[in-house]
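Marked as duplicate of an earlier ticket. Keeping the data here for the record.
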Amino acid sequence: MTAMVGNNIELIILIMGTLTILIHIYMKRSMDLNMTHNMDMKSDMTFGWMVNLLNFIKNIHKIIDKKPDFDLRQLNFITILNYYIDVNSEFENVSYLEICFVLESNVQNEKLDVLIKFTNVSSLEVKGFGGGYNQILGFEIIDYGRDGWEKAKRYFINDYENSTLKFYCESVEILSVD
């Protein structure tokens, strides 16, 4: 009887592992098909599929208009980091973080300053800043909204290489691209 229970547990573990792999493959294929679909369905060559992937960023067109092949990983340096608390349209105190990133491209040493505003910032961590060189090696924005996270922690902003900068926020907005 004990051997039979042991075999059943091993079988259950094997099935769970196989299901996990199949779910991962399905999700990867769905993402690939969705990206391909978005690329095929784009109505304007200026915006392309990247806008569809980053459409949660308010005013993303300000970057895409100037740099159609924009990728978050091109935000390499930080020149301004401004944290403040202000009153929003509903008369609530809300924290804001404005960051000016330098967007670098391999094309003719092209550089753009991208000012991004993050609203309702929480759990802000900044490490290793100072001097004249504040580099970000792997910038990412993760959307937890679909996972049912609370509104204030919808987006997780992170330097995934060095954890130089990380925080949660409610919304992301491009203020300017120069």
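See parent ticket for discussion. The chain is about 30% helix and 35% strand.
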